[in-house]
Write a structure and sequence with these properties.
CATH architecture of the largest domain: Orthogonal Bundle
Shape: globular
Strand content: 15-25%
Helix content: 25-40%
Number of helices: 12
CATH class of the largest domain: Mainly Alpha
Order of helices and strands: HHHEEEHHHHHHHEEEHEEEEEHEE
Number of domains: 2
Number of strands: 13
CATH superfamily of the largest domain: Intergrase catalytic core
């Protein structure tokens, strides 16, 4: 298997351009608009109706579900708050798609659970959200216009696309994003064969909790399964295959191997800090002792007084961040859209099982 991703063709996700989706700041403004609107009426029956629309928006905004999937939900039975899972497609959908489980954040799960403790609101749901889709769309359009956006960017499908772009820009692997959103693509069959629904939920949960405020200092994160372990006298070499079909090599002590309980097939998270990623501007693959070598394109450069940050787009699934000194920056003489090799050795990779 080729470690570099130079042969992969990048695809454009629907809604990736500004004219077809909202960015994170804009969609957060839209969410705040919904929240204020849901509370501003003095009439109790209107507040109940608006709370229902708000929950429909939040489920689409944070799961990327289709409007008809959310409207068909029985919020009393189809949401497992203990596991923070929503099951879409169990009822009411005339489609060949199978029911799928979607991870939600602890914060969203708690908000829905709190809403359902209101007996009047709970009774008003009558076991489903079951709102006229046209009415929902009109309310979505109104909130978008109130925020100064074109009304079509407030449509449920546009919110869904915006969520997809948001997840990809957070470095969630493309194949996981597609599975989360319920896309059926024959091109992803190989990836789905190796990564189960449970694996997808584990990866999604990490991104949702990270998004909710639990940050990591490492910029470069890979998810994958261990495909080989070569045990030595003191240290072991571990190779993992990512969802994007990239091979990552790392070396850890045998004590760490035993403590983490690692074995072939274990789902693992690998982190590489940005200063450990070395960039080289060459036509041919560099001849070096580093085991992890990726070919990509510089997508963003942020220059500082002491250091410079480079973001290298390796594939649809992976962006690598590298931080170099300002002196090295001048020597590299890299510009946006330049092709470059991103390199890090096995000792730079830290593994996590949580």
């Amino acid at each position: 298997m080729n470690k570099s991703s130079s042969s992969k063709k990048q695809s454009v996700w629907p809604g990736q351009t500004d004219s077809r989706s909202l960015d994170t700041i804009q969609i957060n403004r839209l969410e705040q608009s919904f929240r204020e609107w849901a509370l501003e009426s003095s009439r109790a029956n209107i507040r109940l109706s608006r709370k229902r629309i708000l929950l429909i928006f939040l489920l689409i905004r944070y799961t990327g579900a289709r409007l008809n999937e959310v409207l068909a939900l029985n919020p009393l039975e189809d949401i497992d708050h203990a596991k923070q899972l929503v099951v879409f497609g169990k009822r009411g959908l005339k489609t060949e798609r199978q029911a799928r489980q979607m991870q939600i954040s602890e914060k969203l799960s708690s908000e829905i659970q709190e809403a359902l403790t209101d007996g009047v609101f709970r009774q008003s749901l009558d076991n489903s959200f079951d709102v006229d889709p046209g009415h929902v769309r009109r309310k979505f359009y109104e909130r978008a216009v109130a925020c100064g956006f074109p009304k079509e960017l407030g449509a449920p499908d546009a919110i869904r696309k915006s969520r997809a772009v948001e997840l990809m820009q957070s470095n969630m692997p493309l194949s996981v994003v597609q599975k989360v959103l319920g896309h059926l693509s024959p091109k992803l069959t190989a990836s789905y064969t190796s990564f189960s629904d449970k694996d997808t939920q584990q990866i999604t949960k990490f991104f949702l909790e990270k998004e909710a405020g639990r940050k990591t200092s490492a910029r470069n994160i890979f998810f994958g399964k261990i495909c080989s372990i070569q045990k030595g006298d003191i240290q072991s070499k571990i190779e993992l295959i990512t969802i994007g079909d990239n091979l990552i090599s790392t070396v850890i002590t045998n004590d760490s191997l035993a403590r983490l309980g690692l074995k072939t097939g274990t789902m693992i998270k690998a982190e590489v800090k940005a200063p450990w990623v070395i960039l080289q501007k060459k036509d041919e693959e560099p001849e070096c002792s580093a085991e992890n070598i990726f070919h990509g394109t510089v997508s963003r450069i942020t220059e500082g007084k002491v250091t410079t940050e480079y973001v290298v787009r390796v594939s649809d699934e992976i962006e690598l961040c590298s931080i170099v000194t300002s002196q090295s920056n001048r020597q590299l003489d890299l510009k946006e859209n330049d092709t470059v090799w991103a390199i890090f050795n096995s000792f730079s990779v830290v593994l996590h099982t949580d």
